[in-house]
What does this fold into?
Amino acid sequence: MKRIRLLRIGTVLLGAVYMSNVAQGAANDPFKNIATIDGTSIANPKPEDWLSNGRDYREQRFSPLAAINTGNVKDLGVAWEFRTHSVRALEATPIVANGVMFISSAWSKVFALDAKTGRQLWSYDPHVPGVWARYACCDVGNRGVAIWKGAVYVGTLDGRLVKLDAATGKPAWDISTIDRSKAYTITGAPRIVKGLVIIGNGGAEYDARGYVGAYDAQSGKLRWRFYVVPGDPARPPENAAMAAALKTWSRGKFEWWKMGGGGAPWDSMAFDPTLDLLYVGTGNGAPWNRNMRSPAGGDNLYLSSILALRPETGQLVWYYQTTPGDTWDFDSTSHMILADLPIGGVTRKVIIQAPKNGFFYVLDRETGKLISAKRYAVVTWAKGIDQTTGRPIENPAARYGNGAAVVMPSETGGHNWQPMAFDPATGLVYIPAMDGTGLFVPQKPFVYEPRAWNTGNDFAAITGAILGAVKTGKPPPPSLGYIKAWDPVTQKEVWHVPMAGSWNGGLLATAGGLVFGGGADGNFSAYDARSGGKLWSIDLTTGILAPPMSYAIDGEQYIAVLAGWGGAGGLSAFKDPHAALSKYGTNEGRLFAFRLGGRQGVAALPAEEGNIAVEPPPETADAATVQRGFDVFHRNCSVCHGFFAQSEGVVPDLRTVRSAIWDSYDAIVLGGALVDGGMASFKDALSKNDVAAIRAYVLSQAHALWDAKKGKQPAH
Ligand code: CA
It folds into this structure.
């Protein structure tokens, strides 16, 4: 008894020390101040705070702090670092309020940190079932949390919305936002408007009918839901918007409402309190090929659109469709910015987006009317945007009804989710842009499989075409990445800097005249906002996707960024020799905070205990089985393990696994032996024969690599 009492006293004392440290590190009673954060605070945060995903409701990702500036940024160094102990994509923007930082990491985990020291105050693990990795096209990342009146809100990969006490991390409620029999996911950050937590979802190709929902921040009760695409035409449409949308879809052999139809609004939002409009970006159609979901054509509202909704009711006020009748996976979910710009001698209230389709749009955000649109990346699918109708002038060869089409941008987009930034002083928008080539070949016959990745694209044929091109000495051009400074008034590029790889991080602009951003190669840099000149750089030893942010404590300015590579480009693309992974052999995630006079240089973490390159077991399968194995592989495995079973290292490279793995395919793929790491059982989708065929295909790739290492055939 005595011993127990002593332990209890010890715990109380430790608790007291802990609380006083928090108080010292982060001003007096930070959580009391966080309890007052509401819509007024988020609309106009204090300069030292960053209260919503894009800092405030305008989503400009511009910090008014200027202590770190073009003159002294060369002295920037590491203030502290925090290990997330994750090896998958880190995509979140940290939220900082009153000296407390809130971040989310892979698998929707949440951490509260003392923003001055990096000390962990609490952590929360929603225990997302490993099986949900199967339903996530683009890794198990999470783009951040939202805060409101003393609570932290996170959407989880398996479609839940959780409210946590900001001071303790204890869940207040945990609700499901989805039909759990379907493969919906949440990777985006919630936004909180007028006491409502707004969150959408992903999962278009799998079986999702995309929607955005509003939940009471206090109770978690669903207040409204807006579907992006119409449901079963035999049933009455949910509202006038759905009745109008229904007229733009056509029925075919594959009934779109049984496949979901897509449109998933999986990331971007913004809010204008004066106009009382909530803006939501929507995703691509599913399957990608319009012929397979709406064979007689049609715009297929509201795919690939910017929607303006009434936040209290979810009523549609206006929409602008960037890619009518999308057939190229051209989501319009990229980050959106609200700004007031001088256009034609008048200050216009605009909304800005550079979606995947390669055009930079400036719209009147009150009416949705097009002000201007010009290409910001190499575009071949359309010649331009018709100024009168606001519609693209399509290149007829780009629609791959029956034949193949080569299209730029690729399905990865001229710009993906990685956020842009807007600097009101320079008037420029900074875009993490890409130039890539997409090859689209219709899958014949198309077979819809619920909860699988149904693109309608024939990846076996695409791979064959790419390999053929490589063999004839004409490989497709590599994807290129840039930071582009874009003038949204004149619709012209002002400067650009090339990046090492194509799949890079989001951006931050500051009043210090700086633009910050990281790359696949792990370099995190500061650029002169006016010229693009590189003024400072540090190697964080891990590829960077997440956008940086800035905050201040006790008058000192900090820059913070999460480093941890992955996502669509990190998982499934060709091996990127520029990626930090190739150099350091680890993708363990960290949050870095920087201040003037901080420590120079970052020590690499120990490389993960990786795969061992031993000679793979002999091949016994015939060529037809290997080919079938590739077909099955691309539909079920490739989004995580790469189109050629050649992962970047974010997940294991299947070609160089330990010998025991080759003998355990059934146990892993059917038995779910590695589910805790995200490799779930595929027993519901695959037979033993399928698994044998997958193994035969992967083994053929392993031998190709082994032979290449011995100096025989070149491997692709
Ligand atoms: Ca998409």
Remarks:
- Residues 204, 283-284, 329, 331 surround calcium ion (CB under 6 Å).
